[in-house]
Amino acid sequence: MEILNGKELKKKKLLELKEQVLKLSQPLGFAVVQVGHNEASNVYIRQKEKMAEQLGYEFYHISLEEDILEDELIQTIQELNEDEKVHGILVQMPLPSHIDAKKVQDAVNPEKDVDGLNALNSGKLLKQEEGLLPCTPSGIITLLHAYQIPLCGRHAVVVGRSELVGKPLALLLLNEDATVTICHSKTEHLEQYTKMADILISAVGKKDFIRADMVKEGAVVIDVGMNRVDGKLYGDVKYDEVAPYCSYITPVPGGVGPMTVLELGENVYRAHQKQLKKTFDR
Ligand code: NAP
Predict the structure, then answer these.
(1) 190 lines ligand 1 (CB under 6 A)
(2) Residues of each domain in the chain carrying CATH 3.40.50.720
């Protein structure tokens, strides 16, 4: 069994990316918009700020009050869309319930949408056109490629169908010519599917959800889950029990999480490249 070490790969790839960033004539700007003061969001934003610092990006943390109106939030995003110093924009989720998160995501200029979640970028993924991809799914593909794990023709089973992880990941795997099965909370006899997986990805959000008797011997197991219990972080996979059966497995922490942050850094750079190209094409 080999560990898929996202932490190490992120370190290596951030250095490579920094070399590219240093060649640019202007600093890149990355804006994170936060509404309210959700504790978990604060932690994720600090990780993003650290990544931005490592890459020499200008980091703009726009912190807005919990009771901000949807129109006011969209107005703030439109100002960032217009701001030439800002190359990437991310709206930190979750948003308060009085705000329509999809409407807000769609307000981000698709060329600055470093979360890859607005409708245009989702459509481009579906049509296999070049756009900005959501960070966790693309980070998983980067990790699989780095360890030269073949995807073509292999059976990938994705547990979870969220717009953030499960659905885009299933499409990316399909684009890699994997045979893809998507499971969710209404799937009957889940273990029958998971046991058939050459590559099993769990994006459910429940500690100890994937147990050894659900995994085929020699499978590659990717654990997306991030479950905080008594202040400690756990994945979805019962790691000690499952690891001996796998050919490869991601740890939590240190697997998919760092890859997500890396891809975000990459997306800010890619977004800038797209904006540059558009300027030249004009
Ligand atoms: P989500 O929106 O809550 O989606 C969870 C998915 O799991 C849903 O599709 C749900 O099915 C499915 N599910 C729930 N119970 C199930 C069951 N008993 N059997 C089969 N499927 C079941 O969550 P998410 O945003 O995709 O995130 C999933 C996990 O990944 C969370 O722990 C999150 O914190 C973590 N995450 C980690 C990263 C990272 O960088 N490592 C990034 C993003 C998310 P239905 O659709 O039928 O409800």
Answers:
(1) yes
(2) 135-256
Active site residue 92: yes
CATH 3.40.50.10860, the chain: domain bounds: 27-109
Instruction: Judge if the beta carbon of residue 196 lies within 6 A of ligand 1.
Output: no
Q: Per residue in 123-161, pLDDT tens?
A: 999 999 999 999 999 999 999 999 999 999 999 999 999
Q: Would you state the pLDDT for residue 12?
A: 98
Q: For 135-256, CATH number?
A: 3.40.50.720
Ligand 1 centroid distance, CA of 126 (Å): 21
How far apart are the C-alpha atoms of 51 and 59, rounded to whole Å?
10
List 10, 13, 34, 92, catalytic entry: 92
Residues of the chain with pLDDT under 70: 280-282
List CB contacts of 269: < 8 A, sequence separation 6 or more. 17, 20, 21, 28, 55
Percentage helix, strand, coil, to 5, in the chain?
45, 20, 35
pTM, two decimal places: 0.97
At 221-244, the pLDDT tens digits run 999 999 999 989 999 999 999 999
Does ligand 1 come within 6 angstroms of the Cβ of 33? Answer: no
Supply the pLDDT for residue 277. 85
Check pocket membership of 117 for ligand 1, CB cut-off 6 A: no
Q: What's the DSSP call for residue 67?
A: T
For residue 161, the ligand 1 atom closest to its alpha carbon is 9
Kindly indicate whether the domain formed by 27-109 is annotated with CATH number 3.40.50.10860. yes
